[in-house]
């Protein structure tokens, strides 16, 4: 039986910047690596099991069946760093900030008070951002279903779902 070894060099883009890592540890998750980078603490870590969604980032990669680029919301705590070779990763800092301006999803979640403690917010934002990359005009049901991997303990979800009203988000873009 042969052993599959991780790549010696992993290259990807992070928030539009090219990154090359030599011999990344097979024990390092994408989440651990992102959080170790200066200024990228928006991607949170809580459960470490992919159940809470606070670690969600947007990943764009080539689909092996269709050979087309697809964008997915992924739990960075479950994603080994060595597995993202050739991918494009976007964190909450990569879509907007107070310095460069906020993305419409970030604006709406703040305007609708969907950020009570703020811990789950980056994951919620990135889940919605990724959904809009895949389905630019989702229905309310698709939006609601999209958050099934995100847990919020503070707001009760109503302000978050109100903020993510698909018709109003589309008009903001």
TrEMBL record:
Annotated family: Belongs to the xanthine dehydrogenase family.
Occurrences of domain [2Fe-2S]-binding (ranges): 91-164
Organism name: Amphimedon queenslandica (Sponge)
Residues of the 2Fe-2S ferredoxin-type domain: 12-80
Record's keyword annotation contains Magnesium: no
Any one GO MF annotation of this record: 2 iron, 2 sulfur cluster binding
Matches recorded under Pfam families: Fer2, Fer2_2
Protein name in UniProt: 2Fe-2S ferredoxin-type domain-containing protein
Keyword NAD in annotation: yes
Keywords: 2Fe-2S, Iron, Iron-sulfur, Metal-binding, NAD, Oxidoreductase
Domain of life: Eukaryota
Cofactors: Mo-molybdopterin; FAD; [2Fe-2S] cluster
């Amino acid at each position: 039986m042969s052993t599959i070894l991780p790549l010696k060099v992993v290259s990807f883009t992070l928030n539009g910047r090219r990154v090359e890592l030599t011999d990344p540890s097979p024990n390092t998750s994408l989440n651990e690596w992102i959080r170790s980078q200066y200024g990228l603490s928006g991607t949170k870590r809580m459960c470490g099991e992919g159940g809470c969604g606070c670690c969600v980032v947007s990943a764009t990669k080539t689909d092996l069946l269709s050979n087309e680029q697809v964008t997915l919301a992924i739990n960075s705590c479950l994603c080994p760093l060595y597995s993202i070779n050739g991918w494009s990763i976007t964190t909450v800092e990569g879509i907007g900030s107070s310095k460069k301006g906020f993305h419409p999803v970030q604006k709406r979640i703040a305007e609708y008070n969907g950020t009570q403690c703020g811990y789950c917010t980056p994951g919620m934002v990135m889940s919605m951002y990724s959904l809009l990359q895949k389905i630019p005009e989702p229905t309310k049901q698709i939006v609601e279903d999209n958050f099934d991997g995100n847990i919020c303990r503070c707001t009760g979800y109503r302000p978050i779902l109100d903020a993510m009203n698909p018709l109003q988000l589309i008009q903001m873009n």
